[in-house]
Amino acid sequence: MRAMTYRGPYKVRVEEKDRPRIEHPNDAIVRVTLAAICGSDLHLYHGLMPDTRIGHTFGHEFIGVVDEVGSSVESLQVGDRVMVPFNIACGTCFFCARGLISNCHNVNPNATAVGGIYGYSHTTGGYDGGQAEYVRVPFADVGPSVIPEGISDENALMMTDALSTGYFGAQLGGTREGDTVVVFGAGPVGLYAARSSWLMGAGRVIVVDYLDYRLQKAREFAYAETVDFGAVDDIVLHLKRMTDHLGADVVIDAVGAEADGNLAQHITSAKFKLQGGSPVALNWAIDSVRKGGTVSVMGAYGPLFSAVKFGDALNKGLTLRMNQAPVKRQWPRLFEHIRSGALDPSAIITHRIPLEHIAEAYHVFSSKLDDCIKTVIVPESAAWTAA
Ligand SMILES: NC(=O)c1ccc[n+]([C@@H]2O[C@H](COP(=O)([O-])OP(=O)(O)OC[C@H]3O[C@@H](n4cnc5c(N)ncnc54)[C@H](O)[C@@H]3O)[C@@H](O)[C@H]2O)c1
Ligand SMILES: [Zn+2]
Ligand SMILES: [Zn+2]
Fold first, then answer.
1. Using CA positions, which residue lies closest to atom 17 of ligand 1?
2. Domain extent for 213
3. Which helix (H) or strand (E) holds 84?
């Protein structure tokens, strides 16, 4: 089969790989019909995630058709159209039993700090991902769902991560009626978090980024006020002025460990490797939320140390909430919002690219060229089926 493979930082290509096989009775093999590239894939692409091995296939956002099932699979049949959450979970361990399906203990037994994720390095279990024609889906009775009536393929695809993560970020913010919510990052996760904050009662939503075309999307898609942090002297002071000098009630970090905007952090992280990234946006979040407020962190941070302003968070009495999104938990509400017309997640998709051209798609998304926000990948075999 054809599959995207990692060749080293900033190098990916499409190669011929063995089609995955059933390895366990509860596995399914899914023929991928659509996949997407996530901002999280950029951390891998930039070589920032430990134990990203040559030959690994990325891709934790995908939908497809069940091609084969193991002998114990009960909830799926060959031919079912399925959406697969990015978390791999066993469904029965201590954590899964408590709904912490992104923190499953069984799917990544070599690690205590992170669960299993498709196509996200051996740090998260070494599972090959869905930017390929076929993918092995473990615990097939737990993760995937048949795509329900009324949910388009592209909307189902957005629910496998970005939309569910943005919605979860807004949930963790604990937004109350009338609250002011600031979202750092106008990528897919930030756009969905901003839009979801309204669904949770926000009175005001402000999105911060420095890419004009993304801020424009934040105004159109998420009905947010926007601030270009590159155009103001001091983004924290600017946000304070916008929020009665008290600060926002809720701030969501939808940027993660590769934030732009602070030279010193860049030098100590990217150049001298003194920390595992530049948590500029997270520090801005801690500074611009009001005392007693909540910071919800959706942006990804690797296992390495990052210089975060913990003392200020303590002295301000902040609530810090974060996790890898437990994707499937968000689906019932999101189905309702999409069916009622309150939400059309596919509106943020800017690029639809054949799998064979995925190297270029990574370059365009990574360098933020061609007004790229969200790229959907179409395997050749899927395009052929659709035609
Ligand atoms: N927790 C989870 O489960 C989960 C799931 C999906 C993605 N993520 C993470 O969420 C983050 C966002 O994902 P995405 O797909 O939207 O990525 P993306 O790269 O498309 O978007 C990130 C945006 O942040 C902006 N940005 C950079 N520095 C900034 C700063 N200092 N202040 C404000 N904005 C800044 C960039 O210009 C960009 O528009 C990534 O770190 C990703 O790894 C986490
Ligand atoms: Zn992701
Ligand atoms: Zn589990």
1. 39
2. 167-322
3. strand 81-84
Cα torsion angle, 324, 329, 333, 334, sign: positive
Atom of ligand 1 nearest to the CA of 190: 16
DSSP classification of residue 365: H
Ligand 1 pocket check for 86: Cβ under 6 Å: no
Query: Does the Cβ of 185 fall within 6 Å of ligand 1?
Result: yes
The response to whether residue 301 sits with its C-beta less than 6 Å from ligand 1 reads no
Task: State which of 293, 322, 351 marks the end of a domain.
Answer: 322
CATH of the domain at 216: 3.40.50.720
The tens place of each residue's pLDDT in the chain, 387 residues long, gives: 999 999 999 999 999 999 999 999 999 999 999 999 999 999 999 998 999 999 999 999 999 999 999 999 999 999 999 999 999 999 999 999 999 999 999 999 888 889 999 999 999 999 999 999 999 999 999 999 999 999 999 999 999 999 999 999 999 999 999 999 999 999 999 999 999 999 999 999 999 999 999 999 999 999 999 999 999 999 999 999 999 999 999 999 999 988 888 777 777 777 777 777 788 999 999 999 999 999 999 999 987 788 899 999 999 999 999 999 999 999 999 999 999 999 999 999 999 999 999 999 999 999 999 999 999 999 987 765 554
Mutate to test the pocket of ligand 1, among 117, 167, 255 (most ligand atoms within 8 A of CB): 255
Please indicate whether residue 187, judged by its CB atom, sits closer than 6 Å to ligand 1.
yes
Residues 155 and 188 in one domain: no
Which helix (H) or strand (E) is 289 found in, with range?
strand 289-297
- Where would I find the H helices in 207-273? 212-222, 235-242, 263-266
| Domain count across the chain | 2
CB atoms within 10 A of CB 154: 19
Q: Half-sphere exposure (CA, 13 Å, Cβ side) for 17?
A: 24
